[in-house]
Amino acid sequence: MTLPRWVSIALKVTTVGVLAFIYIPIGIIIMYSFNASKVATWPIESYTIDWYVKAFNDPGIRSAVLASVEAGVGATALSLLLGSLLAFAVHRFSFFGRQAIAFIVILPLALPGIVTGLALNTAFRAIGIDFGLMTIIIGHATFCVVVIYNNAVARLRRTSRSFEEASADLGADTFTTFRRVTFPAIRTALVAGALLAFALSFDEIIVTNFTSGAGIQTLPLWIFNNYQRPNQLPLVNVAAVLVLIISIIPVYLASRLTADPTSIASSRS
Fold first, then answer.
1. Residue 178 domain-assigned?
2. pTM higher than 0.85 for the full model?
């Protein structure tokens, strides 16, 4: 279908406007991270990388990055296990309440983070669990599991069961069929879901604020706690760039893993 010229121009202008609305503020933060002055003034008069050197040597930022990575890996591992099992249970078996479980599984992603955080905080206090890295991991897993579940279910729906039936007819047991047939078919979906789950966990702040203990601080929490301190603002900008980079990389890899091979080939030609 050929669009009128004015419609094509309007779509291009709208696309550029939307992208500018989203990414210009991010670009400004990146520029301010190289600002030689401690004061955020515009235009920037001179640039430096000294703030990056100081940030990498700052023990608070380094411990916060480590805590974020540990929480992200832990939440991803837990959600990968639970999400994949839930996907198989909902997709491959028929039982009473199946649709209700499918709705309940994806509900945490739609709930406001403050509600989830408050609920988890109350539950942990009621049970008597000490707040720390483990409570952060559990809190992050409540919404990371949705990403794994959605990816796994979507791939299972596109995977024909005839291959598994053929494997069973040839004498393979359930474990062998899963290892040689089912898992290779859904492997990229699980990896992509795990990458997205890690990205979501790494930059989460609301649930983290309710589930972290006094002795642990992730990088988003460090940014939030130091943003109002004028002397820390240059380091906050650098920390924000770090969050941006570490979040973009897994999202990009996940998009490449789940991309249509036909569209990739056409884009390269």
1. yes
2. no
